[in-house]
Structures are given as C-alpha cells and as structure tokens.
C-alpha cells in the first residue's frame, strides 16, 4: 500500500497547479517568441519587393535594422500608426516611413499585425464610437473645426478608408495617435526591463 506524498502547503491540488504553472507560462512565452521569429520580416523580403526597389539601398541600411533603445520604440509607434490608418500595404508603408523617423523596420513591420481579420472590426467600431464622441463636442465649437477639416479632405480620406464616415475617420486618426504613444511608452519600458533582466542574469552568472 502506497501513501500519497504530502505537499509543502498541505494541499495536493495547490502544489500540482503551482508546479504546472511554470511550464505552461514558459510554453506560452516560447509560442510567442516562435510567432515573432516566423513573422519577423527579413531583409531579403524587402530587397525583392518591387515597390521598395527605388529606395532599397536606403531601406536596407544597417542602421534601420539594428535593435536599439531608440529605434525599437519608434518602430512600435510607427507600426501602430500605419497598422491602424493604412488599409493596405502596411508593411511597405512602414518601411518607407522608417527612413525619416529612423525607426527599426522589422519592429515597425511586425507591429502592423495589430490590425488583422480578428481585431479590425473591433478597432473600427471603437473608432466610430470615439469619433462620434469627439464630433459631438466639435458641434459646440464655432465653425466646427474638426468637421470642416474632415470635409475638406474627404476625397483623399474616402479613397484611403473605403467610404468610412467622418466619425470613423476622426476616430481612426485618434486611435492611431493614442496607439503610437502607448506603443512607444510600452516599448521603452519593456526595453529597459529586458536590459535590466539581462544585467541581473549576467551578474548572477546565468548569461
């Protein structure tokens, strides 16, 4: 007859869940890292892109592919903006805009995946609600500056956003700006935490 081994906390269920949590978290982390590695753009892909051939020599500059504490947050912010505002060619557009902003191209291209068939409906619905809320207050301002501005550029925005209404247009612009700021701050904090973790591991001889 065998007896159950007592757990440290006196309850077997708690110890088993605690022991299984670490492998589950690690497996989730590894899946996330694997997805990033599979979808991270390669320089060869940009080199073969026919839309980028006129500026390929600049897009492939090593400085735009280095992961630094400044270029990565800029890449995340740029990817958030282009991912939300551009309905097509988001990766190509992010590569173009990475030149003047000196952003990391792989990070910018990868962040554009924030919009996908699963998230786009929710983003557009939120943009419509946010834009309607802003335009409601704009109606109380003499001259309706936001509405007038949108109306003046309705032809370009009509083509860009496939007949989206003024509220959705304003909402998308606001979401892109908010997402870029949040993405930049989150990437900056994440970079610092990652560097601090590397230094701690190196200090304890676990590098």
Automatic annotation (TrEMBL):
<feature type="transmembrane region" description="Helical">
    <location>
        <begin position="169"/>
        <end position="194"/>
    </location>
</feature>
<protein>
    <submittedName>
        <fullName>DUF2062 domain-containing protein</fullName>
    </submittedName>
</protein>
<feature type="domain" description="DUF2062">
    <location>
        <begin position="52"/>
        <end position="200"/>
    </location>
</feature>
<feature type="transmembrane region" description="Helical">
    <location>
        <begin position="76"/>
        <end position="99"/>
    </location>
</feature>
<keyword id="KW-1133">Transmembrane helix</keyword>
<feature type="compositionally biased region" description="Low complexity">
    <location>
        <begin position="7"/>
        <end position="20"/>
    </location>
</feature>
<dbReference type="Pfam" id="PF09835">
    <property type="entry name" value="DUF2062"/>
</dbReference>
<feature type="region of interest" description="Disordered">
    <location>
        <begin position="1"/>
        <end position="21"/>
    </location>
</feature>
<keyword id="KW-0812">Transmembrane</keyword>
<dbReference type="InterPro" id="IPR018639">
    <property type="entry name" value="DUF2062"/>
</dbReference>
<keyword id="KW-0472">Membrane</keyword>
């Amino acid at each position: 007859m065998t007896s159950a081994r007592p757990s440290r906390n006196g309850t077997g269920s708690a110890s088993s869940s605690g022991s299984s949590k670490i492998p589950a978290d690690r497996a989730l982390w590894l899946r996330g890292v694997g997805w990033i590695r599979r979808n991270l753009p390669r320089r060869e892909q940009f080199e073969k892109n026919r839309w980028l051939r006129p500026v390929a020599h600049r897009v492939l500059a090593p400085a735009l592919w280095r992961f630094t504490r400044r270029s990565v947050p800029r890449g995340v912010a740029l990817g958030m903006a282009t991912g939300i505002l551009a309905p097509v060619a988001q990766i190509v557009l992010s590569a173009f805009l990475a030149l003047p902003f000196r952003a990391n191209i792989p990070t910018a291209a990868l962040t554009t995946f924030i919009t996908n068939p699963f998230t786009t409906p929710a983003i557009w619905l939120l943009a419509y609600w946010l834009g309607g809320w802003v335009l409601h207050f704009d109606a109380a301002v003499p001259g309706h500056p936001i509405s007038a501005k949108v109306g003046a550029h309705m032809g370009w925005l009509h083509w860009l956003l496939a007949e989206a209404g003024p509220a959705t247009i304003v909402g998308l612009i606001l979401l892109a700006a908010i997402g870029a700021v949040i993405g930049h701050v989150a990437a900056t904090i994440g970079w610092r935490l990652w560097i601090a973790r590397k230094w701690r591991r190196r200090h304890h001889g676990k590098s």
